[in-house]
Amino acid sequence: MAKIELKQPIVDEIAATVKDAASVVLINYSGITVAQDTVLRKQFREAGVTYKVYKNTLMTRAFKGTEFEGLTENLEGTNAIAVSKNDATAPARIVSKFAKECPALEIKAGVVEGTVYDAKGMAVIANIPSREELLAKFLGSIQSPITNFACVLNQIAEKGGASACEPAPAAEEAPAAE
Description:
This protein is an alpha+beta fold and 178 residues long. The protein has helices at residues 3-18, 34-46, 56-63, 90-101, 119-126, 131-158; strands at 23-28, 50-53, 79-84, 106-112, 115-118. The chain is built from six helices and five strands. A five-stranded antiparallel beta sheet has the order 2-3-1-4-5. Helix 1 (3-18) crosses helix 3 and helix 4 packs across helix 5 (119-126).
């Protein structure tokens, strides 16, 4: 069996991993300890991000002809890829946060929704909150005026009495049935 035939399943695995990915981040992991790598992998797993180390030549073959081909110019040294299919900012956000504790870890480049970014571009993307955080902020901003309006209407209706916006007095506990 030729060497290329042995490596083809790995190239196919990489291609399958990045297929339909919202983002792929190329990470230089040289200089981190095994314990730090274990913590990083756990954070990636919890966020639903795939994190793998592959040979640069195999990643180059897998990226060829895809939207991730722009990453091949950064494939020098020790590299890993973090792939997210759902949250486009998750890999960059996790690496950026983890790099504050472990400066040896760095983002080299990335592809987010089809656009290739360098390290500086990925640093900007890392500061974008997750979709869930943005939705929570949006719903909070929508809900706030409605809540305030309801409180004002309630106060007008009661003409200075206790309103629903103020905390209700604590109810006395009923004696336990024996």
